[in-house]
Sequence to fold (418 residues):
Amino acid sequence: MTTTSVQPPTDRRLERREAKLANILAEAWTLARRDGLAAISLRDLADAVGLRQPSLYVYFESKLDLYDAMFADGYRQLLAYINARRYSDDPRRALAKLVADCVQFSSNDVIRHQLLFQRTIPGFEPSAASFDVALDFYAIGRGMAEAAGVRTQAELDIFTALVSGLAHQQIANDPGGRRWVRLADQVVDMFLADLDRRHKTTTSTGGRR
Amino acid sequence: MTTTSVQPPTDRRLERREAKLANILAEAWTLARRDGLAAISLRDLADAVGLRQPSLYVYFESKLDLYDAMFADGYRQLLAYINARRYSDDPRRALAKLVADCVQFSSNDVIRHQLLFQRTIPGFEPSAASFDVALDFYAIGRGMAEAAGVRTQAELDIFTALVSGLAHQQIANDPGGRRWVRLADQVVDMFLADLDRRHKTTTSTGGRR
DNA sequence: GTCTATATTCGGATAGAC
DNA sequence: GTCTATCCGAATATAGAC
Fold:
């Protein structure tokens, strides 16, 4: 019988582990920004956190599992980014702000955008648990869109296309900048005016849902 | 002096070479669709075209060079796709058709879309020659947008965001389908109506260019 | 939980004969 | 232009001691 008995996992053991995991993830993002998302190597990552490469397998059971953790982490960052802002009581102005924020968020980190919004890593698909984090975000977006007058799925589809289009162009042609971020207001106005026009002509007629 | 003298490269020698190159590219696309763009291996590619792996270096001097050839090839496919269509004399209807075609083109091949429109391969950047092919396409898009009334860079930026947003959502959420393709008309109408409104209120005032 | 040592596979790329 | 043979490096992943 040794003095170091088996500890219950609910302690500052878990806390320690979480902290280390967070550190690994942070370094993984740094490496990804330097070498490209698909070009991360577990050797480099281990070096960056002061471990030997096999020790990483204590925290992730495979490289794809690392991507999965990064995926969830990225969406948590997005949720934190959104939650840190105050949005107007006017649902239309709130929506415009949300769109600008989302585009800005993408512009802030191209690699993160790649992992969250583009399917670029061969073989990677987010786990159900990680995808749930993503769904939390999309629920917020949908809620604010509906508050601003979006009713049908087609209208929501157009809205999501507007947001991802702004983000994509921002990243592809002005990474880190604000060229398309600045257009968010105008685009949302355009979208809402179109909603108005369509809801006016087809009042309670073609309201398929 | 041997009987097989040095031939001038202008013959059906070049023709042969071009045909083989085209075949290699076709198989490369097939492999990319199967394994993912970043996961192509030159060994598999050589197998697919009945060559040994080192022989590929007669046609491409590196793997990135293969991607470069695929990039140019993809944009040539896009140009051919567009040129095979007839567009209305009404520039607004023509523009709506162009957008639908571009979104459909993306939907037809997710991998191709990835290479042409997303920066996903670490270390890959198109050569000047390949980029010129891309520019040919963007010149067409810009021309048709301007014919439909687009005047400023900001307006063009919004337009490109609309197209890439529709394409992105189509690919991400309904690959191979038409869910966002069908929305192209409505989105272009929305965009043009917004142009009208803006040009009406600020007639020849804020026409920065 | 972290280490050393190693398995295993696979990748792109080059040399040089034919 | 195609081949054989090979280099060299890098990758993920596992076994087992401490």
User: Anything to note?
Assistant: DSSP finds eight helices and no strands in chain B. Chain B touches chain A at residues 35-39, 110, 114, 117-123, 154, 157-158, 160-166, 168-169, 172, 179-180, 183, 186-187, 189-191, 193-194, 197 (CB under 8 Å). Residues 12-35 of chain B form the longest helix (24 residues).
